[in-house]
Amino acid sequence: FRSGRTSQQIRCRVIRHAIRSHSQGQLLRGPLPAAVRCAFLCMQLQPSMPPDELEATLLSWQDVLREATAPPGHAADIEVIQSYLLKVTDMAPERLARLFARMLGPKAEGTLMSTYDRLLAQGEARGIAIGEARGEARGEARGEARGQTRGRATVLHRLLRQRFGTEADRYLPQLHSASIDTLDQWALRILDAAGIADVFAVE
Description:
Helix content is 73%, strand content 0%. By secondary structure, the chain is an all-alpha fold. Helix 6 packs across helix 8 (106-122). The relative contact order is 0.11.
């Protein structure tokens, strides 16, 4: 091992590799629940992906997105996915809204724009907006990193609620204060955890 690399860093690299080891083909047609497959697909996205490539990628997810956002959790699940994409990717909200309308119907377009307006109102997109307006690379990077971390925390909370019910709400403070590496580690544990405490157990 290289000097200075901690066991935690090595473990996180292994976790990221495990998430990315599932090919898109496996996640689009695999045995995992659709919501879990969508979460893993989102976590595999590269934030710097060009908008045209991102649009083609999302269109290829259309069937699994429809399955994951089917009733009864339709509106909430669409909002979680859209919120993550708004925070992590560079696609313009208007274009993303049109794309969701094309894939999931006109209601999805309205949901996305409502989600975007709410994020702006809450200030979660403020770091990115200020960084872009002033051309300050450091401010933009901080805003994008914060948005990506909060997006993953939101997706993970939704998965925990689907698996363990409202007990997941007790862990919101931990989710929103965790790093991306830790969130990825918890996401993998959901698949095999007997109880929600197993997801957050300290090794």
